[in-house]
Specification:
single chain; about 775 residues; mainly alpha; five-stranded parallel β-sheet; two-stranded antiparallel sheet; 25 helices; 9 strands; elongated
Length: about 775
């Protein structure tokens, strides 16, 4: 051992070991408050486990910390911890079962040679055979006939080498070697409750529970322990969020009240036993239940009262806002009147302006309509002339277009090739004669034979001046056909009269010459057609000029009309805006008037309730402050007083209220559990479900429904039984007895599916 200098240092070491234990375990983490008494128990158990053949008998009521402190001491000693896992089928020879668990513990201790702590509590002892086997382990280190033959042989083989090293040979010696190891390494820690006859009977029947163990009594927690536990668990509960100093004072006061509750109920239980011969055990579990219930109910109750108070305060605020809005709406309605009058005047002015503008627009439309009709007639006449010109020109245009099309196919080299001919036919000459006429080329005077008179020759000038011109084709294609001279046409007419001047015949001699002949004849035809069309064209020109002037004037007047119409549209738009503004003002006035009427009706209807709301809001404000005291008293009633009759309850509650007054903890003067924790609608529903109509029964119903633990109802008249059956009938509640054959199967099924269970006729022990 190393000496620990002071209790503070020891507490620090044990706290570190507890944190180390919680970090290593994946389930079953322990949230322990290490007060001085707990530290003493840890030190005592650890010293017992370190002793050779050290076994401990931990005697104390449930919830006193026997198993938790034993686990912590085991971890400090760095021993292996073993506990049985109870199931519905757990038995002596089942697998897993009691015998298999014992063999597993003995293998760890005897084969692995590791110290192991076998921790078992009285709630895990399903059969007295368990206690007999524990008695044998404590006395001899073994359980007779525990290992079957195969397991026995396996143990012998596993320990053979270590036994030989220790000088042990033979199966019996090796098994004894194994047993010695088990006796040395197995440390039994048995947690038993002194309540009831079973504790006395077991100590009397199995003396090794006393002779071979060191007894550690877990007495009721001292005041220091109660204060430490309450301080730790209530440290996170904010009792007054607005005042930190008051919050700390309230927490301190509540801790003192919790301690007083535990001690007072413990003393009251003695008085209760003496008066009525009824036992009531006040255990640390009851104290933890008190703290857990307070943690659970405090914030819920504060939120509930706060929400209810907020509803009334909000209603009063809404009434005040409505009254204020009524005044504003009246002022607003009054302010809308001048705007309405002005809007009506603006509408009248807009209507007058629109009427005047519309007259002007209509007059201009009549004038323009007449002029548009005249212009349309002129345009139709010009179109008729244009159509006539087009139809007459259509006579000459096909031939001309055909000729021009042929010319486009013709290439300059074809004309150059024609120029290179030494001798040409008369047809080609006549074709060139026509070409010379068109371009006003004079012929050469040539004598065909010496001594004969000279004749006109067009071939020479044609070769020299026309066929040699590289731009001849362009000139032909772009010839000014509109302005041909009459003298040219007369010459072409003379040529046309000659029998040989025929394009088809000339084409046989020369295709280019034939094309030129076709063009000349087409131009001749076009001249005469165009000559007839020229007067029409002049008329068309004059008509188009007149139409152009008329259309220009018409467009100007249309523009003026459009301008006036735009002005009219703008006036119309302004009129619509003014009219909409008037309609909006009228609608606003109507809506304001309607809202004003509804607000007045609302105020008139709620004014009767206003006083009641104000009183209720003040009451809830007081109740909100009293939540701390009311909830701690309610938690005490639910954790401790369920077993007591009404007189004892009233005595205890009265004492707690006086204590709250002394500690300056606010609480209600006329406190009742079912008023503080219950809902009027819910209570009424319970009474419909056959709950007796008295405060004591209502308080009992609150304890049953609000407590964090399952309820054990002392119900000699069957009132609770009837109420619970009626209440849970809609949830298909199962009603069972421990004597039912399917009891062990039904309970897990109900837990799995969330089905309510009522166990009737519960005896002193409950499986």
């Amino acid at each position: 051992y190393k000496q620990v200098m002071g209790l503070t240092k020891f507490k620090e070491i044990v706290t570190n070991q507890l944190e180390d234990y919680n970090s290593m375990t994946t389930s079953g983490k322990m949230n322990l408050v290490l007060f001085n008494a707990a530290l003493e128990h840890v030190a005592r158990i650890a010293r017992i486990l370190k002793l050779p053949f050290g076994n401990a008998l931990l005697v104390g009521v449930g919830g006193s910390g026997r198993q938790s402190l034993a686990k912590l001491a085991c971890h400090i000693c760095d021993y292996t911890l073993f506990q049985v896992t109870m199931t519905a089928t757990y038995g002596i020879w089942t697998d897993p079962g009691w015998k298999t668990d014992l063999m597993q513990v003995m293998r760890i201790a005897g084969i692995k040679n590791e110290p192991v702590v076998f921790l078992i509590s009285d709630t895990q002892i399903k059969d007295e055979q368990f206690v007999e086997d524990i008695n044998n382990i404590l006395n001899n280190g073994e359980v007779p006939n525990l290992f079957p033959t195969e397991e026995y042989q396996a143990v012998i083989e596993a320990c053979m080498q270590d036994a030989r090293n220790a000088g042990k040979t033979g199966p019996t010696a090796i098994f004894n070697f194994f047993i010695e190891r088990c006796k040395k390494n197995i440390h039994m820690v048995i947690a038993l409750s002194p309540i009831g006859d079973s504790f006395r009977n077991r100590l009397r029947m199995f003396p090794s529970l006393v002779n071979c163990t060191t007894i550690d009594w877990f007495h009721p927690w001292p005041t220091e322990a109660l204060q430490s536990v309450a301080s730790v668990f209530l440290d996170d509960v904010v009792l007054d969020p607005e005042d930190t100093k008051n919050n700390a004072q309230l927490q301190k006061s509540i801790v003192e009240v919790c301690v007083d509750m535990q001690e007072r109920v413990h003393n009251l239980s003695g008085k209760y036993l003496r008066a009525l011969r009824r036992h009531n055990y006040v255990t640390p579990t009851s104290y933890l239940e008190l703290i857990k219930t307070f943690q659970k109910l405090f914030q819920k109750s504060r939120d509930k009262v706060g929400e209810e108070k907020a509803r009334y305060v909000n209603g009063l605020n809404k009434l005040a806002e409505t009254e204020e809005q009524v005044g504003k709406m009246q002022a607003h309605l009054k302010s809308l009147q001048p705007g309405l009058i002005k809007a009506k005047e603006d509408v009248k002015v807009a209507i007058a302006n629109i009427t005047e503008s519309k007259k002007e627009v209509d007059a201009q439309r009549v004038v323009i309509s007449g002029e548009e009709k005249i212009a349309t007639e002129k345009a139709n006449a010009a179109k008729a002339i244009e159509d006539k010109c087009t139809s007459e020109l259509a006579v000459a245009m096909p031939a001309l277009n055909k000729a021009l099309g042929a010319l486009k196919v013709l290439k300059q080299k074809d004309l150059t090739e024609l120029k290179s001919f030494k001798t040409v036919s008369d047809g080609v000459k006549m074709s060139m004669e026509g070409l010379c006429y068109m371009f006003e080329r004079k012929p050469d005077m040539v004598a065909p034979e010496p001594g004969k008179p000279k004749v006109k020759d067009f071939w020479g000038p044609a070769k020299k001046h026309l066929l040699g011109d590289t731009k001849l084709l362009d000139k032909i294609l772009n010839y000014d056909k509109e302005n041909m001279k009459e003298s040219i046409i007369k010459k072409v007419s003379t040529l046309k009269a000659k029998p040989g001047y025929n394009p088809e015949k000339i084409t046989k001699s020369s295709k280019p010459a034939g094309i030129v002949c076709t063009w000349v004849l087409a131009m001749h035809t076009f001249y005469f057609v165009n000559k007839n069309v020229l007067p029409l064209k002049e008329s068309l020109k004059e008509a188009q000029a007149e139409v152009s002037v008329l259309m220009k004037q018409l467009n100007e007047k249309k523009a003026q009309l459009q301008k006036v119409e735009n002005e009219l549209a703008q006036l119309q738009k302004q009129f619509e805006e003014v009219k909409q503004k008037e309609a909006d003002l009228v609608q606003q006035a109507q809506e304001t008037s309607d809202r004003l009427a509804r607000a007045r009706d609302l105020i008139a209807g709620l004014s009767v309730m206003k006083d009641g709301w104000s009183i209720k809001a003040k009451e809830l404000d007081i109740a909100f402050k009293n939540v701390v005291g009311d909830v701690i008293v309610s938690s005490g009633v639910m954790a401790y007083l369920g077993v007591f009759t009404i007189d004892y309850r009233n005595e205890c509650v009265s004492a707690w209220k006086n204590l709250l007054k002394e500690k300056s903890v606010p609480s209600s003067e006329n406190y009742k559990l079912h008023v503080t924790m219950g809902e009027p609608v819910e209570l009424q529903h319970w009474r419909v479900m056959k709950l007796p109509n008295d405060d004591f029964s209502a308080d009992n119903a609150i304890i049953v429904t609000k407590s964090t633990r399952y309820a054990l109802c002392i119900d000699p008249e069957g009132q609770a039984n009837n109420w619970i059956k009626n209440l849970e009938a809609k949830n298909k509640m199962k009603v069972l007895k421990q004597s039912d054959s399917n009891f062990a199967k039904e309970i897990p099924m109900c837990v799995q599916f969330g089905t309510p269970v009522l166990v009737e006729a519960v005896q002193e022990s409950l499986d």
